């Protein structure tokens, strides 16, 4: 069984949709270690609504914070301190999809970031979406993960931008899993179609 950690080059790049697609493709369990804001419509709720299989289990977040901000700031508002020792990976015999919050260097407390939640055995999937500055953000994200020795791949989100994607691939030389297009909406059927499309890329050695 494999563990996939989904991170992005920033916020609102499509991590939750990608997490839903991977969860469906692998019939994996899903876990969001830290949820900040949208408590009644969390990323866990969204992914659960989007998948069709009955095998996936949804594990409780270690921290559920009320304000949609960087976890360290949201925790401060709630009067709590996030400790990595309390963020314990759920035990499962299934594949596991873990969704991060924002990008790698989003602080979770005064000394640690989302990067500190990623373990050496995780397969890290970087969600990259084209915007002015996204090449820099993507290259920095991947460079940091490579320097740490992680197994890294990319999944593009949004409309294709050929020159952007080509230079990212040339400069990083990491595997490209595929693309999630700019769709009018995402529902169970759309997620299932992408899951079937990407399943082979995820299950290959």
TrEMBL record:
One of its GO terms (molecular function) is ATP binding. Its EC number is 6.3.3.3. It catalyses: (7R,8S)-7,8-diammoniononanoate + CO2 + ATP = (4R,5S)-dethiobiotin + ADP + phosphate + 3 H(+). GO terms for cellular component: cytosol. Pathway: Cofactor biosynthesis; biotin biosynthesis; biotin from 7,8-diaminononanoate: step 1/2. Mg(2+) binds at residues 16, 43, 99. Pfam families: AAA_26 (PF13500). InterPro entries: DTB_synth_BioD (IPR004472), P-loop_NTPase (IPR027417). GO terms for biological process: biotin biosynthetic process. Keywords: ATP-binding, Biotin biosynthesis, Cytoplasm, Ligase, Magnesium, Metal-binding, Nucleotide-binding. It is an enzyme of class 6 (ligase). The keyword Cytoplasm applies. The active site is at residue 32. It is found in: Cytoplasm. Its cofactor is Mg(2+). It comes from the Bacteria. NCBIfam families: bioD (TIGR00347). Catalyzes a mechanistically unusual reaction, the ATP-dependent insertion of CO2 between the N7 and N8 nitrogen atoms of 7,8-diaminopelargonic acid (DAPA, also called 7,8-diammoniononanoate) to form a ureido ring. Homodimer. PANTHER family: DETHIOBIOTIN SYNTHETASE. Belongs to the dethiobiotin synthetase family. This is ATP-dependent dethiobiotin synthetase BioD. It comes from Ichthyenterobacterium magnum. The lineage of its organism: Bacteria, Pseudomonadati, Bacteroidota, Flavobacteriia, Flavobacteriales. The gene is bioD.
